[in-house]
Amino acid sequence: MNAGNVRCDIRKIVEKAGLRGTDWTPREMRHSFVSLLSGSGVPIEDISRLVSHRNTVIMKTVCRKQIRPVLIQGVKAMDDIFGS
After folding, report:
1. Contact 34, 58 (CB under 8 A)
2. pLDDT tens by residue, 49-59
3. Which of 15, 44, 63, 82 is deepest in the core (most CB within 10 A)?
4. Up-side HSE of residue 49: CA atoms within 13 Å toward CB?
């Protein structure tokens, strides 16, 4: 399979799940996978092996985008705006 075929297949799966296929790419799904595992306390070394990285440098600098801190920050902002 080439990259275009993978993107097309992922788009079909995402749409079958009731989401917009153009909103999710394999790269975004991979980053979400890494972020969710990291946020759940899975050691970065284990995550790195799961996504076939040779070391954790890439994981720490590029792939691991923490979702939970962003969500918490958003919730706090909404509480400030609308009151708790």
Report:
1. no
2. 898 888 888 77
3. 63
4. 4
